[in-house]
Amino acid sequence: MSPLLKLLLKIARIVGLFMLASHMTIVFMFSGLLLNALQFILYMTLYNVNRNLYRKLNYYLIYFSWTQILAVYEWRSNSSCTLYGDEVSIREFGKEHCIIVMNHKYDIDWVVCWFITNHLKMLANSKTCAKKQLRNIPVIGWGWIFAEMIFLERSWDKDKLVLGEKLDKIVEYTDPIMLLLFCEGTRFTPEKHKASMEFAKTRNLPQLQHHLCPRTSGFNFIAKHCKNKIPYIYNIQLGFPETEKKPTFSNMLRGYKFNADVFLERIPMSEVPTDTDEALNKWLHDLYQKSKLVFSSITKHSVIDKLMDDYFKTEKFPGKCVPLKRSYRSLINSVFWAIVIGIPWIYSIYLVLTTGNFILTTVVSSIFILQFTAMFYMVKQTKASKGSSYGTTKKSSEEANGAFTQKHSNGEFTHDSTRDSEVKGDDLTQNSEQINNNL
């Protein structure tokens, strides 16, 4: 093949990927805004009248939005996921209220969470904590408000006053919920790991190879508050086999395949010592340093870092292996929105090209530019380098000891998008802020 032909094919692939990503972004944003409006109407009419019905109906509105992103993982990149662990942990996973304590190493670990919860038919019932500013982001942020996510100020003195009430709202759900916590506080990078281990050394804490030193204040509060309300904690370790391409959202859009491996360990809440903060601190640090892994035929103690180290050597976790299948529901949903939103959008482009109407051209061009900017920005925010500055800046001693400054969530492609200022919205934003206070 001649160099010129190779160059032309490369340009064609780039242009094709750009057009596909732009089209997907436009469909996602317009459908999301429509779903946000329906969520607002649903909240105003049902939330204070029949909260259980509101949550069941809202589940589907959230599902219609989130599975468009999930379809990229399942069908665009043809990626998959395999569960590992003891038989009881795998069998009971998703059948009860639980807290998830998960490692935070990869750019797309939130997508894997969505993949698993969708398989368990509880995608919209997966909850997490996010910084307050994210509620102002259209589509995802507004959707999180109506999904009753927990928004925090990132100031423990303020957050501890409202966190209990927010948790009570979540445990009210009649269907099983998962509360996802990234106790490391931010995604793993070599720079953050180095700073974290320097901090651990000064505090005489365990030196970890594949994790950051966990933060304890938020976890301690949640464990104490939910002691008799949530029966189990799941320790989850996520790994991807080493490949030439890193598991990032941009590589997913390019069509590269990634196979996630997830280890589950089911821990009864009754085994978690909640009498004192000191006991909880020790328990959480021990969880990262050593974890009791219970299988059908063996019982052993294993260092979690050793678990991950073995995984990177063998590309598998111990225990029973259960591959998860892709969902046709996410594909059907994406095709539906591609027709409902995509066809009118393509027709509007056709009118621009054939009529040359100035007003229409201006509107379509402005939308296209805004959507491309949004797409570029969201993909950029999924990168680990855009995580918090945890461990790289000096903090007060209270925060350094584990103040709860959780910044991450299942929809992390909007991560830190309002680091310096809050995004201004329209009337729906203002109404949503009031709704969030009520929630």
UniProtKB/TrEMBL annotation:
Residues 98-220 form the Phospholipid/glycerol acyltransferase domain. Keywords: Acyltransferase, Membrane, Transferase, Transmembrane, Transmembrane helix. The chain crosses the membrane at residues 12-37, 335-353, 359-379. It comes from the Eukaryota. Residues 428-439 have a biased composition (Polar residues). One of its GO terms (cellular component) is endomembrane system. Residues 409-427 have a biased composition (Basic and acidic residues). SUPFAM superfamilies: Glycerol-3-phosphate (1)-acyltransferase (SSF69593). The keyword Transferase applies. One of its GO terms (molecular function) is 1-acylglycerol-3-phosphate O-acyltransferase activity. Belongs to the 1-acyl-sn-glycerol-3-phosphate acyltransferase family. This is 1-acyl-sn-glycerol-3-phosphate acyltransferase delta.
